[in-house]
Each structure stands twice: as C-alpha cells, then as structure tokens.
Design brief:
Layout lengths: L7 H16 L7 H10 L4 H8 L6 H13 L5 H9 L4 H12 L22 H16 L7 H10 L3 H8 L4 H10 L7
Helix pairs in contact: 1-2, 1-8, 2-7, 2-8, 3-8, 4-9, 7-8, 8-10
C-alpha cells in the first residue's frame, strides 16, 4: 500500500494493529486490530473524534465486544441473529467448541507456535479498510491518509468493528460532524 501517504498518526495505528495481532498470535491483522489500535491512541484526529463522541471512557466496553465477536469466530451480532433465525445457536456452538478445545478456540488465533520471521500479513478486511481510508481521503481532497480516515472507513464497512462502533453511537455521520462540521455530536 502507499504507506508514504499515511500521516504519523495513521502509521502509528497500523503499527499498533500489527502489535495487537502479534499479541494474540493472530494469523493476520484484521479490522478489529485496527480499531483496537485507534482506541489505544491518545493523539490524532481520530482520538479527538472518539473522545468527543464519548467513546474514550467506554473503550473497555468496545474491547469486550470485539473480544466476544472474536470468540464467535468473527461473526457480527447481526450474523449471529440471522443464524438464530435459522435455528442455529451460535452461543451454544461456541460453548461446545470451547468445552473441547479451550476458550477462544474459534477465534483463529494461534496460541502455540511462533510466527515466522518477516512481516505480518493483513487480512482482506484490514486491507479493505486501508483502501477505503485512501478513497475517503481522496474524496475529501486530503493530501494524506490520516487516522481519522481509518476511523471513517471502519464506520462504513460492514462487519464487527463497524457494528461495535455504531452500537456506541460512532457512525460515519457523527465522526464527520465532529471532524468537519464544526458542530458538536452526541453519541446515542
């Protein structure tokens, strides 16, 4: 990707996402790792937006929701509800798998063995977030891709991070209002 077009804050988010993936021995960096890295930051436009929307003090709830989704093999709550409509109880499946294989067995994280030397790969969803961040920056006529563009991309891509953000009142519209609209936005 065009890493040279990333601001210092956006680069720190990408590096932080890699560290989160390494911390749980994940097979690849995913969109959830990008969101966790954004939550860790205390500087940058995305941090400002998250604080203005009240998410700074609810970061633990977001981390917990991401962890629960990881335990469900990355299924969003909407996916779990759709499966429930078909008579499939995701919670029961997770409980049975964890009973046999241990807690977190469905997460795809590798608990044993080391990672081969080299760069950690980015999963399809993380690549899509970074590509969307680029598109958002270009559409806004911004010269560089900032951490705020990564946050905006997370809010519009379907999946667990976007769902978790929306559950906490952080939407594309609310972030745009805080960053570009000059008005105050309240999380719902």
């Amino acid at each position: 990707m065009m890493f040279e077009r990333f601001t210092k804050d956006a680069r720190a988010v990408v590096v932080g996402a890699v560290e989160h993936a390494e911390g749980v021995s994940a097979g690849a960096v995913d969109a959830g790792h990008l969101l966790l890295a954004l939550l860790d930051r205390e500087a940058g436009r995305a941090s400002f937006a998250l604080a203005a929307l009240g998410l700074a003090e609810r970061g633990d709830a977001v981390r917990e929701a991401l962890g629960e989704a990881r335990r469900r093999a990355g299924l969003s709550q909407a996916d779990a509800e759709a499966l429930a409509g078909l008579g499939i109880d995701v919670s029961e499946i997770v409980a049975r798998v964890e009973e046999v294989h241990g807690v977190g067995a469905m997460s795809g994280d590798r608990k044993s063995g080391g990672w081969r030397a080299g760069r950690r790969s980015f999963g399809r969803d993380a690549k899509e977030i970074l590509e969307k961040a680029l598109r958002i920056a270009v559409a806004r006529r911004d010269r560089h891709i900032g951490d705020e563009h990564i946050l905006l991309a997370l809010t519009v891509r379907p999946g667990v991070p976007g769902e978790v953000l929306a559950d906490h009142g952080v939407t594309y519209e609310s972030v745009v209002r805080v960053l570009y609209g000059g008005g105050e936005a309240k999380a719902g």
